[in-house]
């Protein structure tokens, strides 16, 4: 869907669309398939009663997908075991109704608990794990997977699903062990566009337990997958291959919490993104230690099609089955979004979309901030200055400019007269711009001037 903000009705145009693709001028949706590799520069147009606008857009067809980090929503951080098709549909509706889709938010991802569960007493989670032919059986809360995918596609969005290479997911639901190919075929048949594969009980398999062993723990990551790269990569390589064999573009999200330096091999198993960390929660300690302390080592491996994933966003109403407003303060939330965008992270909103407030909406729809995350060069920022509580992150952008984040990890506001331009790779005359406020600051000559900054605690 062409992402364009503004009053509806709107009509869309696309000049120079390659053969095989077609545009619906009323919805702005481009559909179809390209038969040949290549790059196409298309001129997109959007028009409403107030005016019109054009923008160049690059369509690339080749071996790689997810050329910019995926943006969307995932059920886990708000609903966890309370996941249901109704919640998923409601989230998709809000992405469209509140206009997030017009800023590029696209994927609607179902996490754990769409399958039946090994021990739950909840009747809606009890039932067969697989049918007599071995096909996975969704639980009663997901009565029609194909219908759900059609519904989400009908809104101009894409849809994602979740499983584990082990016999059980982390939450104790049906995993894909020994049904990998069949599952990949099933997801493609239903129409899924994104797939998260979560290590979980595979830890026990990797350590040598039999799949039928009742003592297999759903969530114990085990030992071998932490040190032995062959063992760690095996299940992802297998599923990565089966996903590639489907006649669909399915983004492959590797989730094994960063074990055995996944950033070094994630691309080789067809992973489009890989978690670099254990699970995030909505506290400053969790978000800041993941964001500031654990990402630099993985940065050189991020590139178009392959992204480091510091886990999903914890803004809005989150709470893993028991949602409450995020415990991050507003400035901590600006830190979270700024940092994740600098890190070229997949951006997956983790909140209850039906309780979406205006602050969270503005936090997630600032196009100049999102453009840093989505910059096509795909270079992840690293920390270039670490001085007391000050952290300065910088990354190079496709147009030759630099995105820079100034962060204060301390408890008091910080006054700064910034002049270390060499560290962020800038010389000569420059016009700094505050992307959150979408305003230029005073022009500087980097040889003699400095930028006065107040960085909140
Ligand atoms: C793990 C993952 C989470 C989520 C849960 C589901 O903890 O890291 O992101 O998918 O499993 O059980």
How does this model look, in words?
With 457 residues, the protein is of the alpha/beta class. 22% of the residues lie in helices and 24% in strands. The protein has eleven helices and 24 strands. The strands form eight sheets. An eight-stranded parallel β-sheet has the order 12-11-10-9-8-7-6-15. Strands 1-4-5 form a three-stranded antiparallel β-sheet, with no helix packed on it. A three-stranded antiparallel β-sheet has the order 16-17-18, covered by helices on one side. Strand 17 and strand 18 form a beta hairpin. Helix 4 runs parallel beside helix 7 (229-244), helix 8 (284-293) runs parallel beside helix 9 and helix 9 crosses helix 11. The longest helix is centred in the middle third of the chain and has 16 residues, at 229-244. It is globular. The mean pLDDT is 97. The structure holds alpha-D-galactopyranose (GLA). Alpha-D-galactopyranose is lined by residues 76, 111-112, 169-171, 198, 255, 279. Alpha-D-galactopyranose binds at residues 76, 111-112, 169-171, 198, 255, 279.
């Amino acid at each position: 869907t062409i992402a364009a903000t503004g009053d509806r009705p709107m009509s869309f145009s696309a000049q120079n669309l390659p053969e095989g693709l077609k545009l619906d001028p009323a919805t702005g949706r481009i559909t179809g398939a390209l038969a040949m590799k290549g790059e196409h520069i298309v001129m997109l147009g959007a028009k409403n009663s107030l005016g019109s606008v054009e923008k160049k857009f690059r369509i690339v067809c080749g071996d790689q997908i997810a050329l910019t980090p995926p943006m969307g929503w995932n059920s886990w951080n708000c609903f966890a075991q309370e996941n249901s098709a109704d919640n998923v549909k409601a989230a998709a509706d809000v992405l469209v109704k509140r206009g997030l889709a017009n800023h590029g938010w696209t994927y609607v991802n179902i996490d754990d608990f769409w399958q039946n569960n090994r021990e739950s007493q909840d009747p809606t989670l009890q039932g067969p794990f697989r049918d007599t032919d071995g096909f996975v059986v969704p639980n009663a809360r997901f009565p029609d997977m194909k219908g759900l995918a059609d519904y989400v596609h009908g809104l101009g969005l894409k849809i994602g699903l979740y499983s584990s290479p082990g016999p059980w997911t982390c939450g104790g639901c049906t995993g894909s062990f020994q049904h990998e190919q069949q599952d990949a075929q099933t997801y493609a048949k239903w129409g899924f566009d994104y797939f998260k594969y979560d290590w979980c009980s595979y830890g026990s398999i990797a350590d040598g337990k039999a799949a039928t062993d009742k003592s297999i723990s759903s969530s114990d990551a085990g030992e071998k997958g932490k040190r032995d790269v062959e063992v760690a990569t095996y299940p992802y390589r297998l599923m990565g291959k089966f996903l590639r064999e489907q006649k669909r573009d399915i983004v492959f999200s590797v989730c094994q919490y960063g074990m055995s330096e996944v950033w070094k091999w994630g691309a080789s198993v067809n992973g489009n993104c890989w978690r670099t960390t254990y699970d995030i929660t909505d506290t400053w300690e969790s978000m800041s230690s993941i964001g500031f302390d654990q990402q630099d080592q993985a940065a050189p491996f991020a590139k178009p099609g392959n992204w480091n994933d510091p886990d999903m966003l914890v803004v809005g109403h989150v709470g893993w089955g028991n949602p409450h407003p995020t415990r991050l303060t507003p400035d901590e939330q600006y830190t979270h979004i700024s940092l994740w965008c600098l890190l070229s992270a997949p951006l997956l909103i983790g909140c209850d979309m039906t309780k979406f407030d205006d602050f969270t909406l503005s936090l997630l729809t600032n196009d100049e901030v999102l453009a840093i995350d989505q910059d096509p060069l795909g270079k992840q920022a690293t920390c270039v200055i670490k001085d007391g509580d000050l952290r300065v992150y910088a990354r190079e952008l496709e147009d030759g400019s630099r995105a820079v984040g100034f962060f204060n990890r301390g408890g008091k506001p910080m006054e700064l007269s910034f002049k270390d331009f060499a560290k962020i790779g800038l010389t000569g005359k420059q016009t700094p711009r505050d992307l959150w406020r979408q305003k230029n600051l005073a022009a500087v000559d980097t040889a003699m001037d400095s930028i006065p900054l107040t960085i909140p605690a």
